[in-house]
Specification:
This protein has about 200 residues and is α+β, with helices and mostly antiparallel strands. The chain has two domains: about 1-145, Jelly Rolls (Sandwich), CATH 2.60.120.10; about 160-204. The chain is built from nine helices and eight strands. It has helices spanning about 20-25, 30-40, 95-100, 120-130, 135-160, 160-170, 175-180, 180-190, 195-200, and strands spanning about 45, 50-55, 60-70, 70-75, 80-85, 90-95, 110, 115-120. It has a four-stranded antiparallel β-sheet with strand order 1-8-3-6. It has a four-stranded antiparallel β-sheet with strand order 2-7-4-5. The longest helix is centred in the C-terminal third of the chain and has 25 residues, at about 135-160. The protein is globular, with a radius of gyration of 18 Å. The relative contact order is 0.14.
Length: about 200
C-alpha cells in the first residue's frame, strides 16, 4: 500500500504481527488488561521504498515504533536533500514538533527501504496516558529522551569537529553506522561522502 502522506492509516492487525510491540511493552512491566489496551491502540502500517510517512507542510498525527526498514528525516535546501536523522528497526519514529504542536511539519520523513511501523494516533496516545497506569511516565520518558537527543545533536553540530561527531556516533549509536548508507550518514554529520570516507578510514 503506497502512502501519500495524508496520515490516513489502515490497521492491519493480527496476533503474530503485533508480537513485537507486545513484547516491547511487556519488557517495560505492562501486563494484563493494560498491556492489551496498549497493543490494541497501535496498528501496523507497511511502506514501500520512497513512500512518505510525513510530508513537509502537513500535520503529523502519529508516532510509532519501527518494526522493519529505515526511514529518512530530511529537508530540501537548494534543491538537495539534507538528512537530519534515520530511524531504524526497534527505535521510535516521530516528527516531534509537528506531532506535539499540531502544526505543519517542517520536514519530510520517507522510507529508504520497504518497511513497517507500529503507529499510534495522538488521540489513542492521550487515552493511554489518561487510562493506563504507568503509561504517562513511559510517554514522558520517551519525550525526554527525544528532546535530549535533539539538543545533543544541535550542540554537536555547533561545537564538535566532523571527526568528533563521528566518534560520538560510534560510541552512542553504532547500529546507525553499520546500517545507514554512506550518503545519509554524511549528511547527518554535516560532511560530504568523500570526507566521511576519509574519517572512517582513520577512525575504526
Amino acid at each position: 500500500m503506497v502512502n501519500n502522506g495524508n496520515q490516513s492509516f489502515e490497521p492491519k492487525v493480527g496476533n503474530i504481527q503485533m508480537e513485537k510491540i507486545q513484547k516491547y511493552f511487556e519488557a517495560l512491566g505492562f501486563a494484563g488488561g493494560s498491556l492489551n489496551k496498549i497493543v490494541d491502540s497501535f496498528s501496523l502500517q507497511w511502506f514501500e521504498k520512497n513512500d512518505f510517512v510525513v510530508q513537509y507542510g502537513k500535520v503529523s498525527k502519529h508516532i510509532g515504533f519501527v518494526d522493519s526498514g529505515m526511514f529518512q528525516y530530511y529537508v530540501l535546501k537548494d534543491g538537495e536533500e539534507r538528512t537530519s536523522y534515520v530511524s531504524i528497526e526497534n527505535t521510535w519514529f516521530a516528527s516531534l514538533l509537528s506531532f506535539i504542536s499540531e502544526t505543519p511539519s517542517l520536514e519530510n520523513i520517507k522510507a529508504l527501504t520497504k518497511g513497517s511501523i507500529f503507529m499510534i494516533s495522538k488521540e489513542n496516545l492521550k487515552k493511554l496516558v489518561a487510562e493506563v497506569p504507568g503509561f504517562k511516565d513511559f510517554y514522558i520518558g520517551l519525550l525526554e529522551v527525544s528532546i535530549c537527543g535533539i539538543d545533543a545533536s544541535r550542540h554537536s553540530l555547533i561545537v564538535l569537529t566532523a571527526e568528533e561527531r563521528y566518534e560520538k556516533m560510534l560510541r552512542n549509536e553504532p547500529r546507525l553506522l553499520q546500517q545507514i548508507p554512506l550518503q545519509y550518514l554524511a549528511s547527518m554529520l554535516g560532511v560530504t561522502p568523500r570526507h566521511l570516507s576519509r574519517i572512517r578510514s582513520t577512525i575504526r
